[in-house]
User: Fold this.
Amino acid sequence: MTTEHHSTFREILGGDRFGYGAEVVTTRGPSPADSPSKLLDMAAALLDDPRIGWISVTDNPGGGPMLPPDWLAGLFPQRGDRLVLHLTCKDMNRNGLEAAAWRYASEGCENILAITGDYPTGGYGGTADPVFDLDSIGLIALLRAMNEGLPVPGRKGAIETLPATDFYIGCVVSPFKRHERELVPQYFKLQRKIEVGAQWVIPQLGYDMRKFHEVKLFLESRGLGHVPVIGNVYLLTRFVAKLFHSGKLAGCVVSDELLETCEKYTAGEDKGRVFFQELAAKQLAVFKGLGFAAGYLGGIHKAETFGQIIDLAESFGENDWRDFLPEICYAQPGEFFFFDHDPKTGMSDAGSINPEYVKSLARPPKPKDATLGYWISRKVHSLAFDRGKKLYGPMTRLFRWMHRSGKPGLLGRMAYWFERESKHVMYGCKDCGDCSLPDCAYLCPNSACSKGSRNGPCGGSCGGRCELDDKDCFWARVYERLKYYGESETMFQGLPVFYNAELKNTSAWANTYLDLDHHAPAANDGKETADSTTPPKTPSKGNTTDGN
Assistant:
């Protein structure tokens, strides 16, 4: 085993040299340390390879059950600074996620990629019910709070501050979206992730270098060009190309044109092996030329194959990447780009935003979701729920009077009944008690989003449809509504939304006016936290629900 010094993952992303990372996927089923498997052998070989800066261990990709990433990390305790562990929100609630984060920190694994996660696709006895108590925004905010020293209730009631962690928090963005209503919210949510605490970025998978380039351009346009971006490369095969093309693997895109090219090369004697490896190596060369911090290789099952592709990428001339960039432009038909590109070079700059998009902001088209009901909801909100304006003060006094005993009186119960029934008819309300209708353009995330996301889109949509392909993407609908009213550019401003499950089946109207829901800390400019260590006093089960 080599004793050569390796830079840490943080040093790689913060340095001047282009680095390389390798993806390792765990297995479903045991793999004991006293009987090393091929997976363990590969991980050890990658960590010993001077060409590989770090290995990244996935967390149940595709939504199926597998060994957790820190199981593998625990077999290499001295190399935690060269391990990146994925942490997803689909299988654990916020308490489980916090516990997992504490476990990672205690094991010396501080590089975490925070992801919402894929919708579960199977499980023992049937498909598992997902959790999604937090989304990626909430998870990033939690990890940042742990880095700052998490305040918690002590044994005697006083607030204690736990020892600060030192997580190096990464996030994902999905630029390979076909429509504006899908892509623009992805970019805006990326900005929010960084504002909340993400320190590095990795895009999801696609094979159009212009879209990868757009991620860096967007960050530069928002004054975030200093944030390291890792280029994502997945070694294709005929099977993988067909899977990505089908849209059944969330966030992974292969266009019609690329699939045809893959079919052509796989008909050859080598089954396309040389073509696929050259494509991966050329992608790495483009990332290096564009100023990405590193390249990340996945879809490979042998340690020596990682080295072969890296060696090929390093063998190219210094400026060869300029020829490769326009060559690897496998876009989807009619695909929307946020920036203008030179068709010859595929290059652009942060100041060349798509002029059609800019024009549409001034005169946005009316979407089908800009309904009369939405217009009425906006008017009612501005009249009665806009904090500090118009009827907000009188309504606050009324609801305080109706709940003066700590429980709703007859009028309070009647108001709750009216709220619950009317909101069910108008919005499909699920009576959560901590309403995000105002955060989501008066579409209910609990009834219209498969993951119940209140902080922006996941990366799973395909062609404007939900990851489950049973409805339009929730956040694409939100975006179109807000854009029509000139509010899309600010759609993710403000504190992250943390749903308080303690308020379920209580009046959201009352919770708003009594400052019990997530709107209260947002109105206080962050002086309180939505994930408060002191739970709000909950109205009794006979209150009102939210429609503000």
